[in-house]
Each structure stands twice: as C-alpha cells, then as structure tokens.
Amino acid sequence: MNIPMRWIGVVCALACTLGAAEIKSPDGRLVVDFNLKPDGSPVYTLAREGVVVLGESRLGLVREDADFTRGLKLVSESKSKRVRDRYELVASKQREHDYRANRRVFGLADAQGRRVDVVFQVSDDGAAFRYVFPETDPTPRAVSEEATSFRFPAGSKAWLQAMSVAKTGWAKTNPSYEEYYDKEIPVGTPSTLGAGWVFPALFRSGENWVLITETGLGRGYCGARLSHESAGGEYRIGFPDARETMGTEPVNPRFATPYATPWRVIAVGDLKTVTESTLGTDLADPAIKGVKLAGAPGKASWSWPKLGDGKTVFDVQRRFIDYAAEMGWGYCLIDSMWDKQIGEEKLAELVRHGAERGVKILVWYNTNGTWNDAYQTPKDRMLTRESRVAEFAKLRRIGVAGVKIDFFGGDGRAFIDFYHDILEDSAPFGLLVNFHGATLPRGWSRTYPHLMTVEAVRGYEFITFEQVNADRAPALMAMLPFARNVFDPMDFTPLCLEGPGKIKRPTTVGAELATTVLYTSGVQHYIELPEVMAKQPDYVRTFLRDIPAAWEESRFLAGYPGKLAVFARRGADGRWWLGGFNGEPEAKTVEIPLDALGLKRGARFALIEDGAPGAFATREVSISSGAKTLRVELKPYGGFAAVSSRR
Questions:
Q1: Which residues are catalytically annotated?
Q2: Whole-number Å distance between alpha carbons of 229 and 241
Q3: Residue 491 in contact with residue 453, Cβ under 8 Å?
Q4: Residue 416's CB: how many other CB atoms inside 10 A?
Q5: Are the beta carbons of 145 and 239 closer than 8 angstroms?
Q6: N or C: which end of the chain has fewer CB within 10 A?
Q7: 619 φ, ψ to 5°?
Q8: Do strands 402-406 and 432-435 pair parallel, antiparallel, or not at all (unpaired)?
Q9: pLDDT score recorded for residue 186
C-alpha cells in the first residue's frame, strides 16, 4: 500500500487504533474509511489504489435541538450491500446509465438517543454520502451548520469558481454562478470574493483528480457551497448568505423527519474518469411520473444576444422562426418584453407560424418578486401557485412548448423550494423548462425530465457586453467541460461567427464551432444571426443541422482544465462528433486516440477547422490500416469540429 509518510499517522489512527469501517468500490480501487473519534465525532478518509485522496475529514451537522457532530455512539452498522440503478436521461451527455456501487449505513445516536444515519455509497468513479434522520417527528427543526469537510493533502491544487456576493451585480441579481474560475491555485486559498466556492469544485491531489458537488437537493434544504476559508486544505460545507431568501425566512435547512439530506458527491480518478462520470445524476432522485413532454431535446434560434430587448417584436421573431426552420432546428426562443412588444394574441400567431414550419416556441419570464431590481417583463407570474398554473395552462392552450425563467435570488431554502414548485407545477403541462440567472441544478434534470437546461454559467451574453469578458473567455470556455458541464446541462448559448458588435473576439471560428459539441444542453440556443449563418459554407450549415441535441455517450479524448478540451460524443445514428478547443494563445498539435471510439480501419471523418483568418477549412480524414490517432493542428484560441462517417 503506497501511503505518503505524512498520512501514515492519520491512516493508522483510523484503521488501526480505532478500528475503521471500510466501504470499497466494486473494483476495489476506491476505499472509504468511516470511524468515530474518541470524542464521538464522525470522520472519514478516502483513498484510491492505496493513496490518500482525502485525509481525515469531518461528518455531521448541528440541528437546533441536537448536535450530530460529536458525542455520538455507533448503534448500528450494516454490511456492504451492492447497489445497482439503471435509468435513461432524455437530454444529457449519455442516454443509458448503469450505476453500480457498494453501500453501507452507519447508525449514530447522541446521549439522548436522537438518531442520524450516515449512508455511504462507493462506485468505481467516486464516493457519496448523505445524512438520513430515520425517526418520525412532525415538528420541523432548523439546521445551524453542516460540519461536512473535504481535507486535501498539502500540495494539492484547485480549479474553483468563486461564489458571487448576494445582492451585487446588474440589478442586484447575484448570485447566479456567473464568475470566472481561479485555476490551479493551492488548496487553502481563501475564495476570491469572500462568499465561498461553487459546485462542482475541481481538485488535483497527486495523480488523482477530484470533482466535488451535491445532488438530490430536495425541499427543506438550501443549496450549499464550499466555505470561504479552507485552512490546511480542509474545505467545509457552507450555507448561503442570509440575504439569499425570498422574504424573511432564514436560508438554512429546516425539515421534519424522517428526512434525507442532499448527497455529497466526490468523483475520483484520472481526468477521463472524472469528466466522464455521471454521479451527479446517478444519485439524484428518480424521474417523477406522468410527464408528457411538449417537445424533445433540440436546437433553437434566439435573437436576444445580438439584438437585445428592443428586437423582441413580431417581425423579428417571425424571421427567427423562419431561420430555425431553414436550419432544421426545432425551437425559437422569444425573450424578454414579449408581453408588451408582441402580446399574447400575436404570440399565438407566431406559434401557428412556427407550427407550419416545424418550429416550436419558447418564451421568457422574470421570476422577480422583491429580491432584485430586474425590470424586464413579464414578471411576477411565477410567484404563486395559482398564477403559475394559470400561466402554464394558457401557454399550452396557445401551443407554446416551453419557458425560460430568469432572475432567481440565491440558494436559500425558500428558493430551492421555489424551483421545485415551478418544476412540479409545469410538469402536468409538459412544458420544457430552462432556468436562467439560477443556481446549479444538482441532478434535477433526472428528477424532472422536462428540465432541459440551466444557465448557472458566465455564458456568451457576457462576451457581448464588454471586451474584458471576451479577453478572458477562452480560458473559461476551455474550463467548462471539466467542471460546470460534467454532471448537469448548461445553457452557455454557444456559437458566434461574427462580432459580436464592436467586441474583438479572440476565439477563432473553429473554436466557436467546437463548443457546439463540447457543451451539452437539452435545448441548445445558438446566438448567431440568420444573415451571418447564411454566409457560412454549406458544410458548416449541414454540420449545425445534423448535430444531435442529446447524446448516447461521451468520451474525454485529450485536454487540461482551462487550457485544452477535446471530447467526442456519439449520436443515436452511431456517428461520433468531435470538438476540440484551445484555450491558450499558443498554437497546439493534438493527437486524438481513435481506439477510444472503437473505430475500424476505413472510418472517415469530415473535419472542419480554421482556415484563413475568420474562415473555415474542411478536409476528409480516412483512418488507414496503421492509424491509431487523428492529428489536428490548433491555432491560438482555435479549435475544430468533426463528424465520423456512418457505421
């Protein structure tokens, strides 16, 4: 067992002196050790192939009536039980899932006999745990803090996005998970903005990569984060700013029992294992029953990023419907101010026009109550169940297929309940849902099959605002497939081939096209204008017509967070789609391992790459008898996209 010297004391104290209980992954490579310290504090460690990934880390939480962080006794301990869960996702990087893990449950009690169970599940790609309160008590109890921590060895590095400060930003709309990443920083570095770090949080400990997130976030709990301070590389769970509430309710969790908290998820392995992991949905709650979708995953035209609120008018939206039809895209998103600048009667006319062209309509809403100053309309219609249901029923009568709901106010418990309210109330109508100005969805796309996508990212709209955003964009864009978009759909809204506006975009057209493959979203909204798309080569337009919106499977091929991302995704017809993005100002050569895709001799790729400045080039690449790799030259901030021949 290869254990660094600095951790021998920790491991011996747990495994030898106190008799730690083990939970192993099915392949035996990951091992979690759980134990109670002499003062009754629950702790755990995590090792991969004998190397400590997380040192002694804390467990438990403090409820208003009981402290479940110390003074506990072990009252029950289950044997290891094999868990298997097969499911499908409507819109994801992978359709079929087969989750396998080993599960153990440790029952703990305080001096008064109050119970909490710590449930561990360890799979080949990571570990997860949650707290379950098995006793029946109808009186809701508040949680003041959660002691859960993740202690990294000295020398570990982190790739983290700072949580923005509540009530800051445009119209006081923060937090919305829209900051840049601090890349490859020493663990223990305080968060940039003083409000903590968001999930998913990426780390490297020696040769092991670790991606931490939460999933299964239900009613009664708040959205968590990693705390601002992480002395000694120990990251603790933090709760939201007190201002992240819909009214006067405290942001902290509050629940009656029995109750199960969200899962704390730790994906572990090499970079391929972590980026291909699906733990964020594997551990999410199963899909609710009876949702009949008003549309399938697809692609959408969208006028707002380049034209703004003022062009949400009838004639412009009709043109974008025609544009979507010409491109073979299934949707057109009609954004803010449609209620005043188009109106419901003319909206119905646009819906009918779209239906004639095979294009469904999505419409925008502002959630805003009192939590920010966003003025765009329609607003307030999502605030009560009565008004929501009436609005959803009206939209379905008109024939609208889905809603984009914007400007939430944080991660407090009331807001998490609000998300569930919207998703549950829209489900009977089958309306596709897209949340913007929102929290990380934390596996909700499995639980609610009509949740197509969520923003929770510094998306392309920021590039259109200021040059500084465009200048920083390449590194961010090369980061997202390794963190934000690993588990949950992401509405980055890619693809800008000209402009935007007076902004000088550093990324090449090849890099822009690559993002249509790299980023996964149940409905992918493209920001490019119809007149710009009309000028593109036929092979580019064909690529954008044919590219799937949902994938059978995905593979990591090459890259490094924030520097290079090369991924392959397989469509339902068996073809592989490749995207490669260079996030740095130096040219690069990438060697893509084709054996990872199971391709045989004679397979061909239609490769689209950067040609002359601002222009595409294309070539066909055949896989010869001895070829094991596909070699592509990437320009500074450049990229490529490719699609294989049909099997």
A1: 406, 461
A2: 15
A3: yes
A4: 25
A5: yes
A6: N
A7: -155, 155
A8: parallel
A9: 98
Tally Cβ neighbours within 10 Å of residue 602. 10
Closest CA to 518 of 560, 472, 485, 483: 485
Chain centre distance of CA 100: 22
- Single-letter amino acid code for the residue at 246: M
With beta carbons less than 8 A apart as the criterion, state whether 331 and 523 touch: yes
CA separation (Å) from 558 to 123, 512, 620? 24, 18, 21
Q: Write out the two tokens for 265.
A: 């998820």
Residue 435 CB contacts under 8 Å (≥ 6 apart), including other chains: 404, 405, 406, 408, 419, 441, 451, 453, 454, 455, 456
| Alpha carbons 177 and 5: distance in angstroms, whole number | 38
Distance CA 395, CA 429 (A): 9
Location of structure tokens 């006319």: 349
Using CA atoms, how far apart are residues 568 and 514, in angstroms rounded to an integer? Answer: 11
Q: What residues contact residue 414 under an 8 Å CB cut-off, 6+ apart?
A: 245, 246, 247, 249, 251
Topology of domain 459-522+546-647, per CATH? Answer: TIM Barrel (3.20.20)
Domain ranges in the chain are 5-71+123-282, 459-522+546-647
Residue type present at position 112: Q
The three-class DSSP label of residue 458 is coil
The DSSP symbol for 171 reads G
DSSP of 604-629, one letter per residue? EEEEEEE-STT-EEEEEEE--TT--E
pLDDT at 598: 83
* pLDDT means over runs of 10, the chain (647 residues): 43 45 98 98 98 98 97 98 97 97 98 98 98 97 98 98 97 97 98 97 97 98 98 98 94 98 98 98 97 96 97 98 98 98 98 98 95 96 97 98 98 98 98 98 98 98 96 98 98 97 96 98 98 98 97 97 98 96 98 83 90 96 76 97 87
Three-class SS state of 610 = strand
CA distance 609 to 620: 11
pTM: 0.95
Nearest Cα to 124, choosing from 27, 266, 22? 27
d(CA 627, CA 112): 68
Cis omega (within 30 of 0) for bond into 175: yes
Give the three-state DSSP class for 385.
Answer: helix
Q: In the chain, count of helices (H) and strands (E)?
A: 16, 35
Residues 417 and 579: their CA atoms lie apart, in Å, by: 37
Integer angstrom CA distances of residue 209 from 39, 153, 183, 201, 596: 32, 13, 14, 11, 20
Burial class (CB in 10 A: 0-12, 13-18, 19+), 235: buried
The rounded distance, in Å, linking the Cα atoms of 338 and 83 is: 48
C-alpha distances (whole Å) from 447 to each of 287, 427, 558, 646 are: 4, 11, 31, 33
Q: Which of 123, 129, 273, 120 is nearest to 210 (CA)?
A: 273
Whole-angstrom Cα distance, residue 119 to residue 116? 10
> What is the rounded end-to-end Cα distance, in angstroms, of the chain?
45
- Whether residue 334 contacts residue 342, with contact meaning beta carbons closer than 8 Å, is answered with yes
One-letter amino acid for residue 596 of the chain: A
Give the architecture (CATH level 2) of 5-71+123-282: Distorted Sandwich (2.70)
| pLDDT value for 646 | 75
Whether 260 and 399 have beta carbons less than 8 Å apart is answered as: no
The DSSP string of 223-270 is --EE-S--GGGEEEEEPPPTT-SSSSS-SS-EEEEEEEPPEEEEEEES
